[in-house]
Amino acid sequence: MQLSNYVPVLNWGKNYKKSWLKGDISAGLTVGVMLIPQGMAYAMLAGLPPIHGLYAVTLPLMIYAILGTSRQLAVGPVAMVSLLTASGVGAIAEIGTEAFLGLAIVLSLMVGVIQFALGLFRLGFLVNLLSHPVVSGFTSAAALIIGLSQLKHLLGIDLARSHHVHEIVLSAVERFGEVNWYTLAIGLLGIGLIIGAKKISKAIPGPLLAVTFGILAVVMIGLESQGVKIVGTVPDGLPSLVLPTFTWEQVQALIPTALTISLVGFMESIAVAKAVQKRHRDYEVVPNQELIALGAANLAGALVQAYPVTGGFSRTAVNDQAGAKTGLASIISALLIVLTLLFLTPLFYSLPKAILASVIMVAVFGLIDIKEARHLWKVDRSDFWMLAVTFIATLSLGIEQGIGVGVALSIAVHIYRSMQPHVAVLGKIPGTDQFRNVDRFTDALETSGTLTVRFDGQLYFANLSYFQRQLNELVEARIPGLERIIINAEGISYIDSSAMHELHNFITNQQAKGIDVLFSGLIGPVRDAFRKNGLFTLVGQHNFYLNVKDAVEAPQTDADGRSANELALQTNLA
Amino acid sequence: MQLSNYVPVLNWGKNYKKSWLKGDISAGLTVGVMLIPQGMAYAMLAGLPPIHGLYAVTLPLMIYAILGTSRQLAVGPVAMVSLLTASGVGAIAEIGTEAFLGLAIVLSLMVGVIQFALGLFRLGFLVNLLSHPVVSGFTSAAALIIGLSQLKHLLGIDLARSHHVHEIVLSAVERFGEVNWYTLAIGLLGIGLIIGAKKISKAIPGPLLAVTFGILAVVMIGLESQGVKIVGTVPDGLPSLVLPTFTWEQVQALIPTALTISLVGFMESIAVAKAVQKRHRDYEVVPNQELIALGAANLAGALVQAYPVTGGFSRTAVNDQAGAKTGLASIISALLIVLTLLFLTPLFYSLPKAILASVIMVAVFGLIDIKEARHLWKVDRSDFWMLAVTFIATLSLGIEQGIGVGVALSIAVHIYRSMQPHVAVLGKIPGTDQFRNVDRFTDALETSGTLTVRFDGQLYFANLSYFQRQLNELVEARIPGLERIIINAEGISYIDSSAMHELHNFITNQQAKGIDVLFSGLIGPVRDAFRKNGLFTLVGQHNFYLNVKDAVEAPQTDADGRSANELALQTNLA
């Protein structure tokens, strides 16, 4: 175990090539410029003063650059985590208060501790419990909620503070008469600028263009007096390093939110890191080290009064396209933000909130994924319903509940499916050595006096009684005249002690009726379990075959009928 | 669908044979005689006046006889359900109060509704989530708790009312000086009588013998004045039919207990019903109909002021051995209890509680299963820990929590295991057509330029990244020189949409590198998924083979290399 596994900066720092520098500087500056409007906008989405979004892209970025395994990942505030912060902290403190701000910082600390610990204990695999349909349904719903949450800034009116889509829409319709048309115009122009810039070239920093336009419009036309809401005074200077203070009650109340952010944030981050890594291949993305790096970044974030961060889709793509080769790009981005904090904050006084809303709205509406839903409807109906239920649960029950429902449902469906695995009766396809499912291959013929059956899936406590029932039905239907049962076990990937017990009973019962039970194609781990449980002795070593053909062609069992099956005997020992 | 499927009495009632009558009468009377002490004892265990244990074996037995599919199952109060009643109702009402009694009756109503609904909606399979190790650990712990809960009656002293074993034992040690030696002597003699009778012949009704002895001892020696606690006045006559009254708050509070009893009770009942059915074979045990029958029995129980019942081990065994052929035996048992209620209750006035305690203790200590734990330690360490954790959780956290921990743990372990299934690189065993795991078969040889890999288990969202990582590592280790990857898919029992998506990516990536991806041995349901997702087109129809050998021997892909693979083509359509 090398130190550089834990501090990947040692890898690229030692071997840094001059040729990388140009790309790193150019990407670092591009992303830094993007971060100014995005950082402030996402902080607003999270319910925090915009400046805290800038704090979040100082120290945390540098820490990730040192500890992270991805060389292009751009860490910082992202829409989903901001929304989770707003809804989670919003449930225990009023948005806009000092208490809310303090709790958001404590949340960053907690996410840091959780992610760091998950990485340390190598629990990164937990993120695999989030299936594609669940993530897709959750993301679409969250994007809808986020987009609508910005409607009030875009229209310039107070709307019902709610995460329920219908309440927001209703409230907007009711108060439509109060719309501030200057605000709406600024916001729509901002949206147009960002989308237009993207269409022309990805190199144009649309959001920064929109911000510049917004500030100029407010200053030059004097829109503030027309009721256009602006950001106002943005404190200048670097954040002071303060240890966050908290009570255990606060920590307890924040645990569900912190866990959700830890996993959802990690999932988003690892997905984009892996996607970008595929284009490079000069390094590996190591999930557990990524957790450690993100955890450390969030811990550092709590020190500089930031709220939770993670690796984001859009900025990482820009970072990569602008030529980032190492974490140096992120360090340069962070330095640009530091300079901004020191010298440029007064510029943002006149920035309209509607422009920040437009930045958020453009970012998230692209996340609503109708194509995936349509695709699943065609190819996998059960996964479509998983997506739909998660989507609806997120909209109706809430953000964290939605993802909880999705995960629980996908595990339940998985268990339910494994409770009734596919069972096939096999017959020989004439003219070949192949034995296939007689229900699918109409010319396949069962061997007389023999039931050949394939069980596809692991055999464990939850599908045991299904296995028994299926097997008994097949056996009953062939009595009298049944002489042997061949269980083709190549599809049985695992067998637990409960199943071993029942299999033992089944074999004993059949043997008592004079029916032989043979096995073919047992895989290694299952052979091990058979050996430990004494099933080789019960069944007879000579009744294990490598494939169905050998089993079917084997002579009827007699005490020394073993010679025919030497290879299988050898197999049982391997 | 015939009416007799839903009312099985029509089956045996119509075809009732005269020769069955003798067995039914003899078994019915034997079980009826057992029910008198057991019913009273288990009611005491449940925290109810003994008479309610007798009420529980009137109408419910008759209802089960009409609706149940087992012809030997003896329904009534059992130890586990009685304990669950005591702990569940005890958490919201004081044992011994009217409120407690009322809630126990409401509980019977709720269990009835839940079991009936589970049966109606064919959800009986849920009981399969209880694995053998979890049931074994839970049962042993519950038996220990039940046995110790009777210690106070056996010693004739007040002990701490607790479900924590160590508190009860500590309390007994502290107050040992207060032991009533007459009570203890009666109890120990009762235990001796029951065990002795069982040893001599199972036909001797040991508990009834103990009851008779107890009553005689109290009456003749005047033990009541020596402080021996007796049952006291037992109301005579049949229970009045009353609809239980309840509030929604009470129902809500009882839901966890009702769910646990519904499942645990059903599990005990179905297990014993299936075990007995194996000796008869003139009928089938239908799990969902059993739920309907037990549900109806519990609903009827609520009407006659009973508490939850289910099919029990010991009485069913006696019923079967005494010759029961149909549900008529249970009806006769119930009639005997009705006669007892009408005429014999005064006899039980002097019955010592220590005797009832001895009946319970003998019944439950037999349930403590150390053998199973020892067996699992040897053959399946992970299942051993499942048993141990459930045992300890039941003792330390409580009855319902224990089984909850067990079920959650066994599902978690199942998921965890399926997240990293067995993957094998295959090589050819010289002189055969067999391809086997090169790690186990030392003489198996990999084909040069070919990676042949077998993935054992379903491929779904949770093990996708594991699959990817394994495959990529194997591929990287063989570059340069790798020309084709053969995925032996006979062990892949299912594939979901997330996995399809990743498989698509993997194939595209390999093809871009000039590496062919071939598949062998796809099972039918997986072929269906491939077809729906367009993977046959992506991979090329001719790259699917029936087995590894054909795939390995196939010529390098060319546009019309299909003739070699006609059977496989046919397969893809089947």
From TrEMBL, chains A, B:
GO terms for cellular component: membrane. Residues 440-555 form the STAS domain. The keyword Ribonucleoprotein does not apply. Keywords: Membrane, Transmembrane, Transmembrane helix. Signal peptide: none annotated. One of its GO terms (biological process) is transmembrane transport. CDD domains: STAS_SulP_like_sulfate_transporter. It is a multi-pass membrane protein. The chain crosses the membrane at residues 25-45, 51-67, 74-93, 99-121, 133-151, 179-197, 204-223, 253-273, 328-349, 355-372, 384-416. It is found in: Membrane. InterPro entries: SLC26A/SulP_dom, SLC26A/SulP_fam, STAS_dom, STAS_dom_sf. Pfam families: STAS, Sulfate_transp. The keyword Nuclease does not apply. Coiled coil: none annotated. This is Sulfate permease, SulP family. It comes from Neolewinella agarilytica.
